[in-house]
Amino acid sequence: MPSILVIDDEELFRESTAMALRRRGFDTLEAGNGRIGADLARQHLPDLVLCDVNMEQMNGYQTLESLRRDPATSAIPFILMTGMGDTAAMRKGMDLGADDYLPKPFTAAQLFGAIDARLRQRDVLRQNAEKKLEELRASLTLALPHEMVTPLNGIFGLAQVMTTDAASLGPEEVMEFGQNILASAERLQHTVQNFLLYGQLEILASDPSSLSQLRGRKIDRCCDAITSSVRRQAEIAQRAADLHLDLVDGRVEMAPDMFSRLMEELAGNAFKFSRPGQPVRVSSAVEAGRFQITVEDEGIGMTAEQAANVSAYRQFNRGLQEQQGSGLGLAIVKRLAELHGGNVKILSTLGKGTRVTVTLPGEGTPTQAPTLQP
Prior knowledge:
Blueprint: E1 3-7, H1 11-23, E2 27-31, H2 34-44, E3 48-52, H3 60-69, E4 78-82, H4 87-95, E5 100-103, H5 108-164, H6 171-205, H7 208-215, H8 222-236, E6 243-247, E7 250-252, H9 256-272, E8 280-287, E9 290-297, H10 304-308, H11 329-339, E10 343-349, E11 353-364, E12 371-372
Parallel strand pairs: 1-2, 1-3, 3-4, 4-5, 6-8
Antiparallel strand pairs: 6-12, 7-11, 8-9, 9-11, 10-11
């Protein structure tokens, strides 16, 4: 049975509540104040904490804050109990992260109902987390080995041919082999760089000081950075004619190298998942202190569910189509936008294409004339 920690400095109330819980079959721990309760929670990691608000040594709010700051106890369901009837006290507890609120006095039915509801919710969250972890394992198993082994096989195979048949190869063949080796090496490098970048962004997300420094940088001429990044991706895909630009210049609160990377991933995905001859449109706009970039293609597209579930290492329909990439491109775009106070909106229709709009803190420059692709 689940374990419940009851924290209350009213001994009679605490003991009667604990007795009722034990009769229901719960393993029950008791603490006479918040300080002892917080120590017991860290030591035993109960399935749920039932805590009074008004206690002389470390009140319920302070106990809640203490447990929410500790990664080991931050996810434990926490129910506050109090004799106060005002909604302000209830709101304060919820703002601090309480999962539920029980006004004293309460009946056994109300107590068990609140506990059962919180434990059910905890189980659902655990199941969802386990499902996502399993999906992540499966995606890693499919994506990363493929993305690393495939270009390595190309490098090794071509290098072996050049080594064993060097005397019979002409200059044009050597050049072709060298170009293919370089392309495979660049693909492998991109996979490794994305893997490292995503890890770096996750670390930054948990470090307020580093995150503040990251957000303090700016890029003034977005139009130049966008044009340079997306044209390079078009050249790599050998699809310069498919690229269409309609840009308004502006300033964005993001480091130039990070902004260029964001644009490379957006454009790279658009070319990767569309065919030669299908247009890739890149546009920008400025609205109410926000800089907006949109990249649109007419490629394979995604379902609404797939678009909503874009995340690191997650690929869709890999068994049905050959997708180059580790699934990190759009995940990096989303993380970069979020870390800089922006957001990403993905609209996609399976078989018709995808439109990705990134909105970032920024503003327009004094010259707002559009830059059009000839």
